[in-house]
Amino acid sequence: MRYFETRKARIEIIPMIDIMLFLLVFFAMMTLRMIPASGHVSKLPTSSTATTIAPPKLMIEIHAGGELFAEGQVVTPERVSDLVRSRDPAKLAVTIAGSEDATLQQVMRVIDAVRIGGATQIGLAARQAAR
Fold this sequence. Notes:
This protein is an alpha/beta fold. It has 3 helices and 7 strands.
């Protein structure tokens, strides 16, 4: 009787190939930094003279309400100065990303905190303006 015959087990490799391809693409994108490391600030101001710079060693985000984010957590200006001091300030590149709603005073407060910490390489994040 055919009903009681044992069947040989098969291993389907097509789904495994799909998963491996997905993992390969994911790790390649992470390695090439195609996925932003920080996604809090979504509406950067625009500039017609914006240029691409090297990835920052410290990214500070200013939200509309004035909250500061660094390394994934809410920080104060004093904590920003401490973060800069804890690294090598002479070689530290700091990028400040403010939302469109951030005021100039909030940006200056962060710049002051970074300079108090000892860093001199400060960049402002912006989007390229549409032409």
